[in-house]
């Protein structure tokens, strides 16, 4: 693999599109200073992914874009493309089969940066991944710029390690390890978030479990309520049906009883009628008997009157005869008039009878015609009604069809509008300005990195805060220890002072203000007990100073003397001059063996006394005053020291506390910032999840909307077909309606004509009937008048005959004979009538008795009839009431049936499943109990069951995710271990090979000397690499003591040693021979010539020797200020021209 060509456009000074071909292994780029030679190397470094403007000799990335010159305007875009020859397949992966690989980078002034790989857009990471492990990169050992050759030697151990890693090809492993660590960190963060979510979800599940259980109980209660309600409705319906059937049976029974009562009523009415007829007969008989009785009475009275009259008539007979003559004359005149009137009426009647017969015949004919017209009219009316019904049916069908058509049109319009709305609801990608999930994911990654940095910062400050707190606690504890120490020492000092004051007060010396020996004597530490035991009572003896006269017992103050460990300002020689001092019993034994002078003795530090043939243990006399005095002095000195230390400790505690408070405030600020970062991350994650869910919802909604649109379109087509069919049927119905209306008009006209004929006949018949009725009335009146006239004539004739008879009687007999002849029969008749009257009275009484009996029977029958009527009325009212009740029960049953139908309760199924012990009251109680249970449940979240199942599934999914993440974490950790193992192995092998190559090349370059690489640590994963070089004849202790040329050659030796091990596709050198002299340049050139067999070198140089070595020269000029151009130089042609010249 080698670099085949570089294409530049707008990059730094290369404003115009420029192609730089590299055809040979050794290519030299030459040109004057400032013409843009180094820009070529910058371009290569930039394309390979350099992201720091500083390493491109700029302040910002926009500096790589041509910024204009005196003659040129700035450009807005800079682009560089590298073309590689990959015939050997050095670049593996998916590009291994490509013979040529193009890598391009482009940037604009608005900050848009684009990468292209073989013309396809890609990421910067894709570019760096391709060249990872090949030795190429923006800062790899294959590209050495100006001044960097010496810095390569002086770089830090970790920086030098990077070159070894790149040569070992483990940079990709390192990147993978970094990615794996990031994944591990993200996985752990996800596990933490997942744990939080699972914990929160667990809490929600606990709540939802309660709600779901309540919802399930509610559903069970509700199902029981519906079942009980349905069974209650069915039982009520069945009970109402049973009650209605019972009412029907009762009504049938009462109607049968009513029929019986009505039959009895009819019998009673018949009997009552018969009794009334019998009573009427008896009443008539009674009336006749009464009439006969009264007539007999009248006759008796008449006869009595007649007898009386006959007696008086003789007186009146003469006058009566004259009156009879006058009466006969009048009667004859009236009789003649009556005969004349009767004849007149008879003639008139004879005239009206033929007219009556004629009118009756006309009436019969008109009646026949009227009945025929009426039958025809009724027939036509029926046909007309049928036609009108047909027309109404057709119109009704048309109205229904019109309504259906209007409904279809409205439904069609609604569905069309709904289709438009659904089409408008389809999300338009070009109009979607919401955040992209990929961008949100990048934002989440950015927030995660910021959160990680904030966490690291918080952890660092937390560590500092912990240290500060520990320092504060330590300072406070030290201060408290000092305080406790001071308190203990102060207490001890007070106790010792009290003891010493008590000892001083016990002597007379204290009363005379004199010191005692124990107050003046000084004994080395450890000897107090034995000295005080040896001196005994002398310790309490008074010491007189020089200012006071010595006039008592005690010691006089003198100069200070010493006796071994004892010193005092008094004379203790008598007691201590012959005393020898031993630190231990062994030393005392040794001293005894050496011999003692006469009177000498040995006091041992442990309290024993030794002499010739003497060994005693001196008894202690209570507390040692000397020791207490020394202890008092020591305590006082220590208290003074502790006071100073306490002040210092207090200052340190205050400082530590202030530091702790300051760090705690800083930690709080950092924690708040961390919380803000966590909140931002949470918001970003929520936004990402919301965007992802929104995208999924929109996709699902889009699918649903498209399905709804397809369904709507299908329905629209069906409705359109139905509408067209309906319109066609409307046309056919219009034709049928027109035909029916025509037939209806014809029938209507015929019916009107028949009605007119019928009405005309009816009018004629009415007029004829009126005439006939008038004529009949006239005939009846005339017949009546004729009968009256005939009767009047007969009466007048009888009256005339009677009058003539009376006149003749009056004229034939004398009055007395007549009276005597008339009186005798009258008296006889009177007697007979009286006897007849007695018989008639007996018969009348008998008849009245029978009539009373009949009246009683009639009253009894009437009472029975009245009672029967009451029973009938009661039965009728009862039947009516029962019918009303039955109708009410039927209405209630229909209402129950309607409720059953509305609630979609299957009557027969529920009735078939009803228990035998089912009763309305217990079922009502159970229903009320269930409803009370439902009400006690309170507010019910019916969605809790489904939500519980969803959250349960989500919890199971999250648990599986947690398990998967833990497995992934374990696999990632295992991958890191494998990467670390491989990295150690490769690094160790590469380090040893590069070190060996450096040891081989360095003497060749320098003509002697030695150089080697060394590791700074034992851990091969993190150890740094240092280089040590000693040119011939030098024993320098560090690399920094080398000259610039020596550093350059050492760096080249290292680079070439790396190239020998892992040659990069090409090597670019920018004036690395500048610090070398001619001899070293010659060595450098020979080394380049040797390495060019396996490595393509592109170098910039001003040295003639280096230029001469090149296979290809590329000149860079700047004819136009600020604009670089390429000038190709053909070396063979130049040599030929030189040879020809």
From TrEMBL:
Required for chromosome condensation and partitioning. Signal peptide: none annotated. HAMAP family: Smc_prok (MF_01894). Pfam families: SMC_N. GO terms for cellular component: cytoplasm. This is Chromosome partition protein Smc. SUPFAM superfamilies: P-loop containing nucleoside triphosphate hydrolases (SSF52540). Transmembrane segments: none annotated. Keywords: ATP-binding, Coiled coil, Cytoplasm, DNA-binding, Nucleotide-binding. GO terms for molecular function: ATP binding; ATP hydrolysis activity; DNA binding. GO terms for biological process: chromosome condensation; chromosome segregation; DNA replication; sister chromatid cohesion. PANTHER family: STRUCTURAL MAINTENANCE OF CHROMOSOMES PROTEIN 3. Homodimer.
